[in-house]
């Protein structure tokens, strides 16, 4: 038991140390003019993805420990972990392009969007699995839960449209970009709404033990969607640069997702022991 407890503590400490290190170095870099600190920013921007790689791999190990694809819990954690690794792929390509082509920002759309948009699809599947684990499927007989099932997704999709897509201009934009410009916010609104629905319906399930991990996951998913939207906005407006605010947002979203996966594993460990 002591060995398991020690491993749990280490699982939390490693991503936290990585996050603190990159946060302080990012703040230090911001003290310089953007043009004067380009090499430092490049180094920072090309290496912080270690946090998403760690979170994804750690999540896969946690998934394996709890049955992997043989159990609903293991499958949900594995899928969410793969989503984080998809993000890593997008980051790796973006870093490669910026470094080898000596530019400030990667193109959009680009090969990296296979990873970035792929993570949206994977997260949708992951939270669907989580909703089944949370008892959503067995709670649909209640009238009030049926109301939530319709109102939450509609509200999130409507909010996403009015915030990000209202007044969208199609002139001079490729079909791929149009698909991604709509696909990112609407797909993210979908997985956030499913996660919120899971939280509402599973509020008292298993004594409410799922509340904290699902809250953590919702916050991580929301921050992830904000990071993606900021990238699209800055890429289109030409204001994105490596090591900027958006990179720090991605660093934070990777940390939150890694901690959410680790926390889910810890909570369900307690469920199993009890």
Automatic annotation (TrEMBL):
The chain crosses the membrane at residues 12-31, 43-62, 74-94, 114-135, 147-168, 188-207, 214-236, 248-268. Keywords: Membrane, Transmembrane, Transmembrane helix. This is Histidine kinase N-terminal 7TM region domain-containing protein. It comes from Candidatus Zambryskibacteria bacterium RIFCSPHIGHO2_01_FULL_46_30. The lineage of its organism: Bacteria, Candidatus Zambryskiibacteriota.
